Amino acid sequence: MKSFTYERATTPADALAKAQKSAETRFIAGGTNLLDLMKLEIETPTHLVDLNRLGLKAIEPTAEGGLRIGAMVSNTQLAADERVRRDYGVLSRALLAGASGQLRNKASTAGNLLQRTRCPYFYDTNQACNKRQPGSGCAAIGGYSKQLAVVGVSDACIATHPSDMAVAMRVLDAQVETLRPDGSKRVIPIADFHKLPGTTPHIETELQRGELITAVTLPAPLGGTHIYRKVRDRASYAFALVSVAAVLQKDGTGRVAIGGVAHKPWRLASADALLPRGSKAVADALFAQAKPTEHNAYKLPLVERTLAATLAQART
To answer: How much is the pTM?
Structure first.
């Protein structure tokens, strides 16, 4: 790990000011992903600003009937919140499907959205990776790609986004609140927050340099049945091969988002509209533009079968 300086911020404004001291500053909260990347020298910040004294740990009702989740709320706290369990069950279940209890105790809401891909070529610094080093190439394309993306891919990158929580946030149409370096605020729909790789896979979100996530808001409860199904290589502590987050109504309508298949949680309004016609119609719409490899083509039927199981569970 390369040397770096470190200081603690006490308010969001203080964090923004401290972040201006170096162009290579990173904010650190739980550190469950960033520290691993620093040990491998994939991330090499020269300055860390610790956010753990900012507060931002409240879950509060909004005037619109939803919930506002502070950026520093831990995954454990969020999954256990009575209002989340009652009204946003898909989110609670997605959180509990991710990582271990120890990691969920440290991982924050904002940090979970910002965790980076688990593509093995990204973590192997001997391999070419446009995400790690722009312009160097992509060893994953033509390599072993069982875990990697099947849709929304580009000639520069086929990595997937690893977060379970983000998939549930996407199906709920959450919004991300931020504070910019100039002190202005903005709200980013979760649908726009994560970017597809295109020719710039190293640019993973809409955040600008030095911009700080302060909260994530959920809209008023949708009702219906909330389901999160995650398919993985072993029963616990593994990233999703595919996952399905669903909110389904009694009349057969609803919405679904898919994890483990793209550079961002994958959801299409056109696919949601086909839910009354069953899993094959939805899967066909979701993957009409898919470009699977010989190693990960299994994900297409796996999503369809997982969707079918999800719809059957909702009917029971």
So the answer is: 0.97
